[in-house]
Each structure stands twice: as structure tokens, then as C-alpha cells.
Amino acid sequence: MNENISKRNELLSQKVIKGLESRNMTGYYAATKEEALSLTLQLIPEGSSVTMGGAMSAHEIGLVDALKNGNYNFIDRDAYEDKRAAMLLAYDADVFLVSANAITEDGVMVNIDGNANRVSAIAQGPRKVVFIVGMNKVCDDVDGAMKRARNVAAPINAQRFGLSTPCAKTGSCMNCKSPDTICCQFLITRYSKHPGRIHVILVNDSLGF
Predict the structure, then answer these.
(1) Phi/psi at 196 (nearest 5 deg)?
(2) 47: domain range?
(3) Number of folded domains in the chain?
(4) Which of 49, 60, 123, 131 is the most buried (most CB within 10 A)?
């Protein structure tokens, strides 16, 4: 990555981390994908039950392969014929891996979901939640984060899943009520009631959508 962009990301990450800490969440900065992978694995004790909420960022840093090949009870929902059963296992997992559709400079995270398995597990259930978030997802404020989630993340994900939504066709949110909509549940994570539960790894890269 360009040296100037990396320097900006490093400086901005410190502001985000300070915001996270004020919200009872723990933030980290990883200069590379490799460092992000190492940091994440340090947060996951061997033998832990681990599952995830469709986080492309986890794939992009090599985390999914590391979990599959390591000493972990990785609950791979893609390997389950009964997807609902796999999703329900997340609520009692030791570690839930996820990304954010957007995060504000003062540490508020925004996520949009279709089935709500991802946002519900972020809110309650798993003993530890680890976010892997590219610096491309940092926004000025909650309004900007909502706009990013609805106009960037949602259309790309709708296209990725082959859904017939207005945003998949136009590239921007149409505030639809389409049967295929993935904008069913909105979660704003502004504070963690439980110390040590939510960890956010900010990565000096463009990850996910």
C-alpha cells in the first residue's frame, strides 16, 4: 500500500482505537494482513469453538484456512447441510468472527443483515466477538457509516449472492421492501456491556465490502 495512505491509516486508527476503548471495546492496528492474522490468532485460544458471520475479511487475511488447519473447533457453516443449525451454534461459541459494514472514527460500528444471524450474535451470545475491519470502512460519523452500509456494502453483497434487489441493479440503496432484501436488521454497536468481549482489529488494507 502507498506509504502516505499507510501513514494516514495508522494515525486514524489511533483515533478509532481510542473511541473503541471509551466504549468498553478493545482495538488493535495491524499494518499488514499477516499481522492481522497473527493478532487474531492470539485472541483465539487453541481448542476454542469458533464460528463466523460471513466475514470476507477473515478469508482475505488467511484466517479461515488457519482455523481449519489448526487446533480449533471451527464450525464451518458451509459444511453443514442444515445452515440454520450451524447458525444457532454461534450463540454458544467461544469466539465469533465478523467484520463491520462500517465503523466511525469514534468507534461506533454499523452492520446490516438479512437473516439477522450475524447481528444477533454480535449483540449477544458468543463469549468473545472479534471484528476484522479494513481501514476502507472507516467513516466520519454514524450517518456516514449508515450510508456506506446501505450504498456500498449492501449492493455489493446483493450482487455477490445473486439477489434480485433494486440495489443489485442500480448499485445504490433504493430503500426497498423486495423479498430478496438483505437490509432487514440494522445494528449499531456503540458500547459493550461486557469488558473483554468485543475486540476490533483495524487492518491497513482494503478488506471486504
Answers:
(1) 80, 5
(2) 3-187+197-203
(3) 1
(4) 131
* Strands annotated E in the chain: 26-30, 49-52, 73-74, 95-98, 102-104, 109-113, 128-134, 138-139, 185-189, 198-203
CATH number for position 176: 3.40.50.10420
Name the residue with cell 488467511. 62
Domain assignment present for 209: no
As a whole-number percent, the residues of the chain with pLDDT over 70 amount to 100
Each residue of 169-197: pLDDT tens digit?
999 999 999 999 999 999 999 999 999 99
**Residue closest to 74 by CA, chosen among 65, 61, 85:** 65
| Residue 53 contacts residue 122 (beta carbons within 8 Å) | yes
Mean pLDDT of the chain, nearest integer: 95
**Is position 192 within any domain?**
no
- Please give the model's pTM, rounded to 2 decimal places: 0.95
Q: For residue 203, which phi and psi values (nearest 5 degrees)?
A: -115, 130
CA distance 150 to 152: 6
pLDDT class for 83, splitting at 50, 70, 90? confident
